Amino acid sequence: MKKKIITFLLALLPLFAVTAIHADTIKVVSDTAYAPFEFKDSDQTYKGIDVDIINKVAELKGWDINMTFPGFDAAVNAVQSGQADAIMAGMTKTKDREKVFTMSDTYYDTKVVIATTKTNTISSYSQLKGKTVGVKNGTASQRFLEKIKNKYKFTIKTFDTTDLTYNSLNSGSIDAMMDDQPVIEYAIKQGQNLKISMKGEAVGSFAFGVKKGSKYEYLVTEFNEALAQMKKDGSLEEIITKWTSSTTTKTTSSTPETTTPAGQKATPVKSTYTIASDSSFAPFVFQDSNNKYTGIDMDLIKAIAKDQGFTIEITNPGFDAALNAVQSGQADGMIAGMSVTDARKETFDFSEPYYTANAILAVKESSTIASYKDLKGKTIGVKNGTASQTFLTKNQSKYDYKIKTFADASSMYDSLNSGSVDAVMDDEPVVKYSISQGQKLKTPIKGTPIGDTAFAVKKGSNPELIQMFNNGLANIKKNGQYQKILDKYLKKTSSASSSSDSTVDETTIWGLLQNNYKQLLSGLGITIALALLSFAIAMVIGIIFGMFSVSPVKALRVISEIFVDVIRGIPLMILAAFIFWGIPNLIESMTGHQNPINDFVAGTIALSLNAGAYIAEIVRGGIQAVPVGQMEASRSLGISYSKTMRKIILPQATKIMLPNFVNQFVIALKDTTIVSAIGLVELFQTGKIIIARNYQSFKMYAILAVFYLIIITLLTRLAKRLEKRIK
Q1: I want to staple 375 with a disulfide (CB 3.0 to 4.6 A). Which of 63, 239, 401, 576 is the partner?
Q2: Contact at 8 Å (CB) between 456 and 325?
Q3: Torsions phi, psi for 290 (to 5 deg)
């Protein structure tokens, strides 16, 4: 009887084994960035044709799948080594691959196609002679190019990822690229500077695969069964159409389509979100004549916050400072007319785009420049880190011009007016706004698409904020509020340049003072407070380390020397940036918690340390100026070192040091302008913000110069009176 039971159980064992296999989670690997087949969307989830198909197959066949995206080569190796069970990665069926993989029926017949930039088109293979064609390594495109390269005499350059291929094409290191036609077409729809001028070449079909001879070959059979069903009921065609149809990306020149459905809300995680922005990038963000920040970005984020029910606090430190604020955790998100680039995607997570801009060239009204060819030998101004700069750099060798970068728009336009640059390139709405504000400019060349503008957060942080932005954007587009915001600032720029009805003429010095005196006085107050507080702290630091430097204890002298050398050796701007952005980043990397530093506190610390190092040297020099014989005489009489310093040396040294202290205070006051780099709105930054609105740079800088002259003169006089009293 026992033998019969054992025999029966053994007979059932294969059935249990098969059941166990089917019950296991199936590990499916894929490429990491091969849109529209698989790619990471703005919500940080992977989407695309392959993802939708495998999910549909899993639904039909009852599979429990775990899909990861290590990249094509890594995915192939993972299946071969047994680390994954199957691959779904736009993999072309070939004889070589079918020796290693058991592959399904094809789910997509693909073509490969040559693509170029929009300005350097190639319409036949014969035009490739002597040129370099980029291609993703190990693809059907590469195999096709290898077959024809000798015939048409071109060079092949391979890349590991599609993004690297795009970047090389845009930078001019390759002349053309080849990839699957739907991949190129999708990239074009997403704003890539690509153009197809040739017919595609049929090279094969995509299929699902498992390792040949593995226990997972049954997956191929079940995949084929599900695929047949999907073809029959139309769901396969529906998936492919979803990601390849041109109807999915119909947009206007400035309003990209939002794929997030309207009517959704996300739950805020924080009670208040800090949003950083630029301080001067009209019409996206700028100060109106009432000294309130306004513009497309300001109205947009407020409308989205209201729609989604989350609270925001907006800061306007400037573009570079805003970038660093988000990276260091001092701000949760950023909206500042920020272009979406591959480089920025490595650091930031972006929302769906809310604006698609053109870059346009602007010249003086008297200029004879009428085309890019006329730029030969000339200098073009552009804001640093912008899409306009990327465009100019890419085409520099072609048109033989020089590039000069600027930190802000107002400085750039001033340079154009002064003749230090011959032309400038900026976002089209920004150029039009400047013209509406009285800039004597013209735009002789049609604008060039440069990509999308989006809201951003630090990569991996605040995903709910991205979701709320996308939801809110979809909702305000649907109810018409989004278009009203754009029309307010773009439809009639000349009349909508300011949200106020102020009649003050800001083309005069009196008008500038009349309309901005409160703002200027506020900036002046911060400047004086910063100078006085930092100098007081610097005096304490300087005296301590100055006394260390003349101490008979060698260790104290060494400590003082190190402090002075380190602080004096670091530029003040870098020191301020390190304290404001670097230290919070370091703390976060060590603790996992964000610990932002207030900009005023960071500026005070930086100025205090910087001035303290110089005061330490003033103290050392003052003490050493007192004849050494006085110290020796005092000590020979039995008086202690400390008492000698207090009663004999320091009183004499103080009189020597006083003029230098006054001079150092003046320097410290002027150094407050440097800390504006971290976004602190002191007097100098206040002036720059006003200039960005009205472009009255000469008059505004003259006012600032007078302000600094008056305050430095008054404080110097006060210091000299104190000096006389002490003497």
Answers
A1: 401
A2: no
A3: -95, 10
Residue 380 predicted with pLDDT over 90: yes
Distance CA 279, CA 285 (A): 7
Chain centroid to CA 727: how far?
56
d(CA 527, CA 669): 7
State residue 493's pLDDT score.
42
Residue 503, CA distances (Å) to 284, 438, 500, 506, 696 in order = 23, 16, 9, 9, 16
Specify which residues 488 forms β-bridges with: none
Residue extents of the structural domains in the chain: 22-106+209-244, 108-206, 272-354+455-491, 355-453, 509-726
Q: How far apart are CA 483 and CA 516, in angstroms?
A: 31
Long-range contacts of 556-565 (CB under 8 A, 24+ apart): 560/616, 560/620, 563/613, 563/616, 564/613, 564/616, 564/617
Measured distance CA(365)–CA(355) in Å, rounded:
28
Contact predicate 621/654, CB 8 Å: no
What is the model's pTM? 0.46
- CATH code for 108-206? 3.40.190.10
10 Å Cβ neighbour count for 346?
Answer: 8
pLDDT tens column, 119-141: 788 888 888 999 999 988 777 78
176-188 per-position pLDDT tens digit: 999 888 888 878 8
Domains 355-453 and 509-726 share a fold: no
- Hey, what CATH class is 355-453 in? alpha beta
Pick one of 3.40.50.620, 3.90.1150.10, 3.40.50.2300, 3.40.190.10 as the CATH number of 272-354+455-491. 3.40.190.10
pLDDT in tens, 497-540: 443 344 456 667 787 787 777 878 888 888 889 989 999 999 99
Helices (H), 123-179: 140-152, 162-171
Q: How many CA atoms, within 13 angstroms, populate the side-chain half-sphere of residue 132?
A: 11
Could you tell me the fold of the domain covering 22-106+209-244? D-Maltodextrin-Binding Protein; domain 2 (3.40.190)
| Domain 509-726 part of CATH 1.20.1250.20 | no
Contact partners, residue 396, CB within 8 Å, separation at least 6: 403
Is 71 strand, coil or helix? coil
